[in-house]
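User: I'm curious whether this sequence folds into something compact or stays loose and floppy. Could you predict its structure so I can see for myself?
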Amino acid sequence: MDKVKVGIIGCGNISDIYLHNCTKVFDNLEVIACADIIHKRAEEKAKQYGIQKACSVDELLDNPDIEIVINLTIPKAHAKVCLAALEADKNVYVEKPLAITRDEGKEIIETAEERGLLVGGAPDTFLGGGLQTCRKIIDDGWIGDPIAATAFMLNHGHESWHPDPEFYYKTGGGPMFDMGPYYLTALISLMGPVKRVTGSTRITFSERTITSQPKAGTKIKVDVPTHIAGVMEFDSGAIGTILTSFDVWASQLPRIEIYGTAGSMIVPDPNTFGGPVLIKRAGDEDWVEMPLSHGYSDNSRGIGVSDMAMALREDTAHRANGNMMYHVLDIMHGFHDASNERRHILLESTCKQPSALPIN
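Assistant: Here's the prediction. I'll summarize afterward.
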């Protein structure tokens, strides 16, 4: 199969793992150009990873050889860059979230459909060995029919370690938009789409003080909820609970657990690709760690791009697709809307549960 030529826009910290995997791990991809608003960063990445061209965004989009644009810009630029790439007749793979607003997300999806192009994006951690093993356990009936799930992501925010943490407390940030995509995508991949949500949110600390360098002492006005509790009703009838917070100093809660009619499963961190995966079936005395059924248990960011490239060549469906990304965006907004409006939110969006990866 001919390699799919790729261009990367955005050469910040997250670009390194994409550049490594797309040049060294996934042999159906060829990165031929990279661009960044700071041209020097693009030049440095091109030299480091042996990419033939560092260029401007416009030049990258004008390159007729590029079939997929990987959009690694900051979230508030996701929609603008995605739409520019689509208008240039490029397929797009974007870091999470798809966009900041529902309207932006819809415009991306509709533009892609009108032009016959593919849209997809992060997280693709659900394609790793850990979550694919969980999917196989459910599909094979080891815990029976899923009836409920819990998901927890709690910490005290980013101002103590991140060099530039202000974004996390502005529109498009907060714990739900920052980490929610990992947890919600994992749950959808394992249990299917969601039809109704409700939630409660709050801002606990209206101002944060950065203690990390180089901006130590800078005050941040918090504009978005930093503690979100949500409830989801899946199409299947299963009930999910999710809690994301930047207000918690310490916790021993699990990340994800799924409860079935015949047993329970502990799901690994959805921000990683590996295990461990544990199950305890009805009548068992202890939890049992299950061997991973699938590969890609190391940091395999970019596997979703490789899957998209295969879909382009073989005219199949790609798994980390735009419809699922939009559904996740809709769910996240739904939690906030439910809290503001004090009601349940019936979701307008849905998506297909992505097919499981074959066992190699």
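Summary: Residues 322-341 form the longest helix (20 residues). The domain at 126-294+326-346 is CATH 3.30.360.10 (Dihydrodipicolinate Reductase; domain 2).
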